[in-house]
Structures are given as C-alpha cells and as structure tokens.
Design goal:
Strand content: 5-15%
Oligomer: single chain
Radius of gyration: 22 Å
Order of helices and strands: EHEHHEHEHEEHHHH
CATH class of one domain: Alpha Beta
Structural class: alpha/beta
Shape: elongated
Helix content: 10-25%
CATH superfamily of one domain: Vaccinia Virus protein VP39
Length: about 400
C-alpha cells in the first residue's frame, strides 16, 4: 500500500494489522514524519522524500516505489478534513473543494492515475461526500476520466460509519470511501459488516487501567464548572432545560455540543477534536482534560505508541488520526472484495485485532458537585438558541455569562 497523509500512523497501523505492507508514506508535516520514524524503521514504513501529496501526484511513479505499473494493491489516506467538517460550519458554511486544503483530493487522484492500484481507500468526516461543496462530484468525474483513459473500472462506493461499531471506544462518525480497479460496475458492494454494533467498547475499557505519565489540569474561565456536570453531560446541564434547572448559567443550545462535555465510563467516548479550546471536551470523568496516552487509547492506538512534538502537536495528531481498529476492519474488507467481491463477509471477518480488551463493569459515576459560590450571582434566565440555521451569534445576542 501507499499511504497518503500518514499523520500519526493510524491508517497505516490498521492496514498493517490487516496484512498490508507499506510501499511508502507521504506526509507533509514534520512532526508527523518524526512520529512515524519513532515507531517504525524506515525499511518497514518508508517515509518518502517527497512530502506533498499534490506534488507526488505530479512526479511520483511506480518505479520510485520499486514496483511495476498496476502492481500496487492500495492507495489509502485521510485528506485534510477541516474544510468539510461540522465544526468548521459553526460560524460559516463549509468551503469543501473550494478550500485550498480540498485540493489535496486532486493530488490523491493524480496518484491513482499514475499507480492504477487495485483499490483506493479514503477516510474523512461525514460531510466529505455529502452536502454543499462535497468532494463526491469531483472524485466521481475524475474516476470516470481515469477509466476512459486506462480501461479501468473505478467507481466510488461510500458509507458513513461509526468507528465504535468497528472496535474503537469512541463514537466517531466518518465516511469511508472505496473504489476498485477491476470490480464490474454492476456489482453492488455491501456495507462493511460491523462487528461491535451491538457491543460497543467503552471509555472505561480504554482508560480504566491507564495511568498517564502527566495528568493535565483543567484550565480556562470555566474550568471549575466541570465538577458540576454529570458524566456524559455538557453545559446544557446548566441551562433551563437541563438537569441543573435551578442553576441556569447558559442559554439552551447557545454553545457547541462539546462545550464542557464529559465522558461516561460506561459508553464510548465522544469524538476527539484536533484543536480543542480550554473548554472543549470531551473531558475525563475526573474533571480534567485527557492526557495524550488517554487520547491515543480512545482512538484505538496500541499501548506504547509514541508521538513527536509538544502537547499541542500530540492533541492535533491524535485528533486528526484514523482510528487504527477502524482502518484494520476496512483493510480486511478491501482484501475480501479483491478476493471475491466481498459477498461472503461476516462480522467476524472484520473483527480487528487492535481493539482493546474489555474491562468489565465500571464504578458508579460520581454525582455532580454544587455550583461554586463565585458563579451563583450569574444564575438567572438566559436567552435560548433561536432555531436551526441561526448560528451562535444570531440577532446580535451574546452567548457568554
């Protein structure tokens, strides 16, 4: 396989576990390149000298990888997602393919035409292939052009999957897109069977036995309010419609969902962001930010995986990573489709070896604390969100307390 946008190595780890051998990693970010070097020797995961996928699409050839044209099994990657993400739409519409970061898709497709792999795998946020400015039309058009020129049969198949259904202790909805060089166009691919759909792993499974090297402390203006939020809750507990109705500090739905959001021990984690602010969750049930080792565990990275750079780099790398168990399941799916069209798959065929073991029932949650005295003067009626499509600052109102 050829790995594009390798990042912290989540996609590569999963595909490695599924039986793929790395022909090369393309990664622009130096901290991410250093992370790959920390964990895999260069003869195992070769980090290519060419760092930009767009540039690689113009110059990289199969001979550079020591293979013949058409010999590559898979090109895989998770292109930059910010221009397609829901978080980016909180204040403005998504820019999608109109954003400079959206142009990396064209580089990936240029590489596809140069390499003509048996399969392509793309992981991204749910908005990547649906809604305004999605990449679906551009990818479909280019694949048809490649097919016309090279007599191939690439056709995009995609599904929005929850990583928790594939052995990741985190609710993380991502689009998985695949295309196969030799699959007839009249073959309707089944959705990848979900081995954990009825038995999600939990935050307790991932974190219950983990002791971080450094335990971070909550920071920022709202840090002391974390203890007032129940496990699995967020700031809405302190609104007129929340469980803390007698302590109305915020207007209902006037903040983004992850504001003061806390984990539940008995459920998968909420989606981990790549660039959280000081009040952006999910937070640990111990009322603090998650340590880097905890973030890695909730993404499904194996124990001992090392990150280069500082703390902020680590949070960014982990938040942008493809969860390794999800990538492993998709790698097993791709192998099955190449072998027999994926028609005989069962859930056990896609069960990832990288999934964390279960720890049993967690302790009972700690009840939320009383509101600190310093915040009581701020309790009182607050204006709620005016409705869908109005945004966080509609009609000039303030959302701060």
């Amino acid at each position: 396989m050829l790995s594009c946008f390798s990042g912290a190595g989540g996609m590569d780890l999963g595909l490695e576990s599924a039986g793929f051998e790395s022909a090369g990693c393309i990664e622009l970010d130096q901290v991410a390149r250093d992370t790959v070097h920390k964990n895999r020797a260069n003869d195992v995961w070769p980090v290519l000298d060419i760092t930009d996928v767009v540039e690689a699409g113009k110059s990289l050839t199969p001979s550079h990888l020591g293979i013949a044209p058409g010999e590559l099994t898979l090109i895989a990657g998770g292109p930059p997602c910010q221009s397609f993400s829901m978080a980016a739409q909180w204040n403005r519409p998504k820019t999608g393919m109109n954003d400079d970061r959206g142009q990396t898709i064209h580089g990936l497709l240029d590489l596809t035409e140069r390499m003509l792999p048996q399969a392509i795998l793309i992981e991204n946020v749910a908005g990547f292939l649906r809604g305004q400015n999605s990449a679906e039309a551009a990818i479909g058009h280019r694949l048809r052009d490649i097919n016309f020129k090279h007599k191939t049969k690439y056709r995009l198949h995609h599904w929005v999957l929850n990583a928790a259904d594939y052995g990741v202790p985190q609710n993380r909805r991502r689009v998985i897109a695949v295309a196969f060089r030799d699959l007839p166009h009249d073959v309707l691919l089944p959705k990848p069977p979900a081995p954990y759909s009825d038995e999600h792993l939990t935050a307790w499974d991932a974190l219950g036995g983990l002791t971080p090297t450094v335990v971070p402390e909550a920071e920022g203006r709202y840090a002391e309010l974390l203890a007032c939020i129940p496990e699995g809750g967020n700031y809405q507990h302190l609104t007129a419609r929340g469980g803390g109705r007698d302590v109305e500090l915020f207007g209902y739905r006037t903040r983004y969902w992850s504001f003061l959001l806390k984990l539940r021990r008995d459920a998968p984690a909420w989606t981990l962001p790549a660039s959280p602010g000081p009040s952006t969750g999910p937070f640990h049930w111990e009322n603090r930010p998650l340590a880097i080792e905890e973030r890695l565990a909730l993404q499904g990275f194996p124990a001992g995986w090392q990150l280069a750079g500082n703390k902020r780099d680590g949070v960014r790398l982990v938040g942008n990573a493809t969860p390794p168990p999800l990538a492993e399941s998709m790698g097993l799916y791709i192998r099955s489709v190449i072998a027999d069209g994926g028609q005989m798959l069962s859930v056990d065929d896609l069960r990832p070896r990288l999934a964390v073991p279960r720890r049993g029932a967690p302790p009972k949650p700690t009840p939320p604390a009383e509101l600190p005295n310093a915040w009581r003067p701020k309790v009182g009626p607050k204006e709620a969100h005016p409705g869908k499509g109005e945004g966080p600052a509609g009609h000039g109102r303030s959302v701060d307390v």
